[in-house]
Every structure is written in C-alpha cells, then in structure tokens.
Amino acid sequence: MIIKTEKEMFEQYLTDASNYCGKADVLYIPETLDELKECIKKCNSEKTPITISGAGTGLTGGRVPEGGVIVSTERMNKIISINEQIKLVTVQPGLLLVELEEELSNHGLFYPVNPTEKSASIGGNIATNASGSRTFKYGPTRDYVMKLKIVLADGEELELNRGETFAKGNHLEIKSINGKIYGVELPVLKMPGVKHAAGYFIKPDMDAIDLFIGSEGTLGIVTQISLKLDRMPENLLGGIAFFDDLDRLFGFVKRVREGSGKYRYDVDNKIPLNPPLIKGENNLLNPPLIKGENNLLNPPFEKGESLIDARTIEF
Ligand SMILES: Cc1cc2nc3c(=O)[nH]c(=O)nc-3n(C[C@H](O)[C@H](O)[C@H](O)COP(=O)(O)OP(=O)(O)OC[C@H]3O[C@@H](n4cnc5c(N)ncnc54)[C@H](O)[C@@H]3O)c2cc1C
What we know:
3 domains, globular, five-stranded antiparallel beta sheet, alpha+beta, single chain, about 20% strand, 6 helices
C-alpha cells in the first residue's frame, strides 16, 4: 500500500473537477482488498473520517476531503472476468471507463451507459449513478449493476446481488458475509419520476443494491462491480434535427420518448413502467422486444440489419 503524508505529494487529491479544494492528513492507496480493509478498520477505531477517491472527475466535490484521510481506489483497477455468454463483466472499482470500453470492444461487447467522461473510474460511476449521452435510451449506471461488493466503515464486507435482498416496506435488513446483520429504517421519500442523481435512492420494498448505487461513498466503499453488457452495435447513428417551432420540437421528444419509453417511463403519468427493481419484471436489460417494433431508438442490432429510415417518421 502506498501511503503519502506530505501534503505536497497528494495535492491533486484535495480537489476534483468542481474545483473545490479541501484538506486531509494522509493519502492511502491500497492495492488489495486486505490493505483496503486494514486502513478502513484503523480509521474506524480512531474515528478518523475517510473520503473515497476515484478518478476525481466528479463535478460536485464529492471526493473533496474535509479533513481525515483519503483512500484512493486507483490501484484496485483490474478486470476480474468477462463472460461473453451471459454478457457480464466483473471489475475492481479503480478501473477507468476508457479501459473497460477498450477491453470490451475486443470481445464484441458494449457497456451502453457512456457517462461521457471516459477517465472516470467505474467505482465513481457507481457511487454517482452516472448517466450520459446514451441514458435517454439505455438508462443510467444503476440499470446495469448486477452485483456489488462493498466494505463498510467497520470493515465488514457486503456482497449484494441484484434481485436477492429486498426491503420489507421501509425496513431493510442486510447481512454481511460474516453474518453481521444491519437493520435500516428507510425514510419515506417521493422519488422524482425523471432522471436525477441527488440523494439516496429510496423506495418501499426496494432492492438493497440500489441503496448503495448513487450513495457517493457515504455508506461504504465499493470494491467489486459486476455489470450487465450488451452486444456491440454494428452501427451508431448520430444526427441533428431542426424544428420550426417549440411545439414540434417537444412533440418530437415525446414521440421518441414514447418509442424508447416502452422500457423506461410513462411520460404522461411520470411513472416508471418497468423499474429495474422488481424481480422478474421486464426492464431495460430484459426488454419485451415485440417483433416488428424496431424503431429509431430501438434499433435492430443484428448483423446486416439497418436502422429504420428516420425520414419515414412524421412529426
Ligand atoms: C468533462 C466531464 C464530463 C462529465 N460528464 C458526465 C456525464 O455525462 N454524466 C455524469 O453522470 N457525470 C459526468 N461527469 C462527472 C463525473 O465524471 C462522474 O460523476 C463520475 O462518475 C465520477 O467518477 P470518478 O471516478 O471521477 O469519481 P470521483 O470524482 O473520484 O468521486 C465521485 C464520488 O464517488 C465516490 N467514490 C468514488 N469511488 C468510490 C468507490 N469505489 N466506492 C464508494 N464511493 C466512491 C467519491 O467519494 C465521490 O463522492 C463529467 C465530468 C467531467 C469532468
């Protein structure tokens, strides 16, 4: 484990892309899970605050420390496995998005989320539930997270598989791999029915894994991530559309969203049609593809097929 105690040696970790600047006494860069757990336990016993650092591309100052220690995940950056058959990749949190995408392309696989800033870490993407240029169709990071390993502040480890641990109403019980049980009373919150990344994800009967996605490192350190993938599309289409007036523009957005929203949201009622939280239900990762229903936002990805001619859609 690399330990830096001279401020001049870790100045760049005191800020992020928000340009806020903080302070800290020491920087730990663990290379293994055991090293990470060791420094977490030490900090916990000394009641020293910990700030987790990914790649520092955050725009909200989330990794900017306010004293205590910084724990950087940058050396825990391996791809653990890629399963082409079930289209699943398992990685350590410090792996950068650019590295993941490059390796996946060698396997003909595609991680659809594309949170734009390729030098972000996957751990950071999980902690911020990052979304980006393709989220309108494919959804945010959350929709692709199938499994997380997490180290809590007391050094206990959680292993959360999507679809395995659910809250009962607003009471959530999570068991660590050592059998320690944590009971959580979830506050009653109304989540906005639109894209957002503020605050904890909370819903009655929710999947425990969703509490940690987007929690900005406040609940634990994500140490291993399994992400669902797609096949690499043969073609991607980009374009610019021009509209005569706002009504046509918003009409277009509504139509497109309805086409895509079969797997996302009921636009008029602002409710998720198929949230990724309910076991066994159709969701983005499991879309109920109806033959003949390919449209601009639901392109056929089979080799040799092409996108529907956009000119045939009238707005
Ligand atoms: C040019 C630019 C474009 C961007 N575009 C987008 C965009 O399109 N969509 C978007 O969502 N964001 C975007 N961002 C913001 C940023 O890239 C994302 O928030 C990204 O997910 C942060 O990842 P990071 O590794 O840099 O995390 P950091 O900035 O290092 O940390 C972010 C937060 O995650 C926590 N964290 C990091 N790793 C872990 C871990 N292993 N376990 C627990 N907590 C952890 C940190 O404590 C902090 O709270 C953009 C940023 C830039 C500079």
